[in-house]
Specification:
The chain is α+β, with helices and mostly antiparallel strands and 272 residues long. The chain has two domains: 133 residues, Fructose-1,6-Bisphosphatase, subunit A, domain 1 (Fructose-1,6-Bisphosphatase, Chain A, domain 1), CATH 3.30.540; 113 residues, D-Maltodextrin-Binding Protein, domain 2 (3-Layer(aba) Sandwich). It contains seven helices and 15 strands. Helix 1 runs antiparallel to helix 2 and helix 5 runs parallel beside helix 6. Bound molecules: D-MYO-inositol-1-phosphate (IPD) and calcium ion (CA) (2 copies).
Length: 272
């Protein structure tokens, strides 16, 4: 019998092929609220994934971004982001993915993240390590922010409430750079395989993080909130990194939370 991760991987590949088909046709998008895009690809991918999961595991619960909760009778719960990076997808910017995570009695036990444009499948099972297309992956060893490449994201909803620009600016001044590619699950996968040294974001949802958090932990990394407390998938923020960088990033963020900026923002009248 195939394992949970094998089933999820097959489903994620199918959903990725479906999304690639929509990409080739350059379909339009609709607005979910004022800024939040949603496309036929999000909905079709979710219908495919949820249909397959329900068939394979009828008793399991499913939490999926475009359809909400489907309560089940067992202790298993799937978190599904059918298309993470919708804004990128809608513009033809190739940074999006399918993310599927599985929790048992509140503990993450399996996850897959599939990037259909690069045909990269990240997969993990609790206690079994983390993989990219079957090869084991590990986080980087960088322990200094000054030598790190970081990533973050900004929400499409409620941007006026987001304080991340403060964190972005300080971290960008100190590190080799802070990428903002627009697909949180892929950012987490890149921390797991060492392409990035750390990632943080405010106000993500469980379906953005479930698979990536287990992937990072199984690859030797650490995920907490940005103040160092245990990560809650429904909590206000996440800090995910290679473990070596964790103390330095927590120290930096604690200064920024306290309003103690090292680098003041430049004045606009100095431009040009
Ligand atoms: C979004 C992306 C983005 C992050 C947003 C998410 P979606 O997911 O992961 O990188 O900054 O907060 O909502 O809506 O494209 O699935
Ligand atoms: Ca998402
Ligand atoms: Ca999504």
């Amino acid at each position: 019998m195939p394992s949970y991760v094998e089933v999820a991987a097959g489903i994620a590949r199918e959903a990725g092929a479906l999304i690639n088909g929509f990409l080739a046709r350059r379909i339009g998008f609709e607005l979910k609220g004022e800024f939040d895009l949603v496309t036929e690809a999000d909905r079709s991918s979710e219908a495919l994934i949820v249909g397959r999961l329900r068939k394979e595991f009828p008793a399991h619960s499913i939490v999926a971004e475009e359809g909400g909760e489907r309560a089940g009778s067992s202790e298993f719960r799937w978190y599904v982001d059918p298309l993470d990076g919708t804004t990128n997808f809608a513009h033809g910017f190739p940074a999006f993915n399918v993310s599927i995570g599985l929790e048992r009695a509140g503990e993450l036990i399996a996850g897959v993240i599939y990037d259909p444009t690069r045909d990269e499948l990240f997969s993990t099972e609790k206690g079994a390590g983390a993989f990219l297309n079957q090869s084991p992956i590990h986080v980087s060893k960088t322990s200094r922010i000054e030598a790190s490449l970081l990533a973050t994201g900004f929400p499409s909803r409620k941007r006026h409430l987001n304080v991340n620009i403060h964190f972005y600016y300080q971290a960008a001044m100190l590190s080799h750079g802070v990428r903002r590619a627009g697909a949180a699950a892929l950012d987490l996968a890149y921390v797991a395989c060492g392409r990035l040294d750390g990632f943080w974001e405010f106000a993500l949802n469980p379906w953005d993080m479930a698979a990536g958090v287990l992937l990072i932990r199984e690859a030797g990394g650490t995920c907490t909130d940005m103040r160092g407390a245990p990560l809650d998938l429904r909590g206000p923020h996440i800090l995910a990194d290679n473990t070596a960088l964790h103390p330095a990033l927590l120290a930096l963020f604690s200064q920024i939370f306290a309003g103690q900026y090292v680098f003041p923002l430049p004045e606009i009248n100095r431009a040009g």
